[in-house]
Amino acid sequence: MTEDQLELSVVIPIYNEQENIERLYRDLKQVLERLGKSYEIVAVDDGSTDGSFEVLRELHRGDDLLKVVRLRRNFGQAAAFAAGFDSAVGEIIVSMDADLQFDPADISKLLDKISEGYDIVSGWRADRQETFMTRRLPSMAANWLISRITGVALHDYGCSLKAYRSEVIRNVRLYGELHRFIPALASSIGVHLAEVPVSHYPRRHGKSKYDLSRTLTVILDLLTVKFLLSYATRPMQVFGLLGMLSLAVGTVIAAYLSFIRLFLGSPIANRPLLLLAILLIFVGVQLVTMGLLGELTTRTYYEAQGKKIYVIREMLE
Ligand code: UDP
Ligand code: MG
To answer: Is 21 in the pocket of ligand 1 (CB under 6 A)?
Structure first.
């Protein structure tokens, strides 16, 4: 542990939560003081247009342990998390919402699990206080699908109350709205994962920033995540295989057509099969080329960032 490293950072994205901040701050502060660990709170103002930043500035005046990061505009929750994670120096990083839907006291439950040796401990809103049709049902479907496809089973991907060892966070890059997929993305470096039921309350002030359309974006994101997890280091094996298959079938059909044209003299120009053969050969060549391009991109991706294709947990020397 370096000198300026703390034991705990609590990262909170904030977008127009004016009425919630003070209460959250007081409750959180009480919980953190009781834990007896060195800590900081990292509040990220994601371009709020209400008085959220002014409230934060006022609180910051009286508290060195409250760091405030103000983004220039609203970049979205994932970007806000990323900004918070980047300036957090804690060994353990806890993320939570600013809307008072979580109980800060649950943080100690997450930390207990972390100290048992887990790398990520996810909250699970077992008794979620939101409408069924527009919130809980789509979320159940999404959790099931994400768990099946990524192979990382969690009851509640959408719960932002989570705790991470900082090295896990350092190894995950967030884009778009991928923050909910951190446990799945992190599984690629090998993590021990646990879940803890947490309390959940209805939102009392301010509005939710999301609606039903989120379900659709989650499904698209899932495609990205699946690809990153399974094929990012071997695109040729995916595209190449598909391409070769397509090419092989196309070639067989073309050979057959050539044979009957050349040796049996029957016309082939009016046969749909000819089109199919051409299509398959074309697509096949394209896919193989895509695989090769993918291989190049992968190299750029890893080497430009000095990334390794492995991550070490620890070394005994
Ligand atoms: N949030 C943010 N930037 C955004 C949208 C949301 O920082 O563009 C914050 C928001 O202030 C809250 C958290 O992310 O602290 C979760 O948002 P919300 O409560 O609206 O989501 P829900 O709980 O309804 O899924
Ligand atoms: Mg909320």
So the answer is: no
Residue 131 Cβ < 6 Å to ligand 1:
no
- In angstroms, the Cα distances linking 217 to 14, 15, 214, 249 are 21, 20, 5, 35
Least confident interval from 111-125, 209-223, 242-256: 209-223
Query: Residue 105 C-alpha to ligand 2 middle, in angstroms?
Result: 17
Is the model's pLDDT at 53 over the cut of 70?
yes
Q: What is the pLDDT of residues 287-298, one digit of tens each?
A: 999 999 999 998
Centroid of ligand 1 to alpha carbon of 225 (angstroms): 21
Question: For atom 19 of ligand 1, which residue has the closest CA?
Answer: 208
Question: Helical H runs in 103-240?
Answer: 107-115, 137-150, 166-170, 182-186, 214-231, 235
Residue with token string 């900082």: 166
Output the pTM of the full model.
Answer: 0.86
Architecture of the domain spanning 6-231: Alpha-Beta Complex (3.90)
- Cβ proximity of 89 and 6 under 8 Å: yes
* Predicted confidence (pLDDT) per residue in 70-121, tens digit: 999 999 999 999 999 999 999 999 999 999 999 999 999 999 999 999 999 9
Query: What distance in Å separates the CA atoms of residue 228 and residue 140, rounded to the nearest whole number?
Result: 23
- Judging by beta carbons within 10 Å of its beta carbon (0-12, 13-18, 19+), is residue 264 exposed, middle or buried? exposed
Six-digit token string for 237: 């094996």
Pairing type for strands 66-70 and 39-45 reads parallel
Res 2 pLDDT > 80 = no
Which numbered atom of ligand 1 lies nearest the CA of 75?
8
**Among 24, 52, 162, 209, which residue has the most ligand 1 atoms within 8 Å of its CB, making it the best to mutate?**
209
3-class SS letters over 211-256: CCCHHHHHHHHHHHHHHHHHHCCCHHHHHHHHHHHHHHHHHHHHHH
